[in-house]
Amino acid sequence: MELNQKIAEDLLSIQAVFFRPDEPFTWASGIKSPVYCDNRLTLTAPSVRDDVENGLAELIRTDYPDAEVLMGTSTAGIAHAAITAHILNLPMGYVRSGSKDHGRKNRIEGKLEKGQKVVVVEDLISTGGSVLDVVEALREEGAQVLGIVSIFTYGMKKGIERLKEAGVTNHSLTDFDCIARVAAETGYIRKEDVERLLKFRDNPSDESWIRG
Hints:
By secondary structure, this protein is of the alpha/beta class. It has helices spanning 3-13, 46-63, 78-88, 129-140, 157-166, 176-185, 193-202, and strands spanning 17-19, 25-26, 32-33, 35-37, 69-73, 92-95, 108-109, 117-125, 144-153, 170-175. The chain is built from seven helices and ten strands. Strands 7-6-5-8-9-10 form a six-stranded mixed sheet, sandwiched between helices. Strands 1-4 form a two-stranded antiparallel ribbon. Strands 2-3 form a two-stranded antiparallel sheet. Strand 9 (144-153), helix 5 and strand 10 (170-175) form a beta-alpha-beta unit. Helix 1 (3-13) packs antiparallel against helix 2.
């Protein structure tokens, strides 16, 4: 079985990715979404966690063999960065969403030397804004960011364009298209719902997909 399909099945099995096309969720931005993602649930499901962390380690071995340190995104990417770094015997740290207001006022936690080759570990990528903020913070400190690994990506046009403009590559264990296909194949959703889901992915602000 292909890794992306295996991870898709894993995420669906623990409802880390939960589809509800007929009863959309509402994001903080007000956008109606047929899907809810909570990859933190992978941490409480040991067999899925093993698949995820070993998968992330394999992505790094394959796509970023020169990696010298892993940096997790705060807060969702921290645990995944730590476990994956343990598997690879690499140092790790994480990047806060903002600098501390006390002590040394660090934003980057963990030792990072100028010129070090860094891979960012993220759980989920949608529009790419938050992870690119992390990339920029690392670059400002002199790190050489090789790219990103993530558990899941929506594959939204805005996110793809932002990553390209920033000159950053992302490799995900699975993506929205794969999970939608697997969900239909396993009877989790109706086959006719897949087109609606992909329509949402193409343009989240267009709510015409809700009407089927």
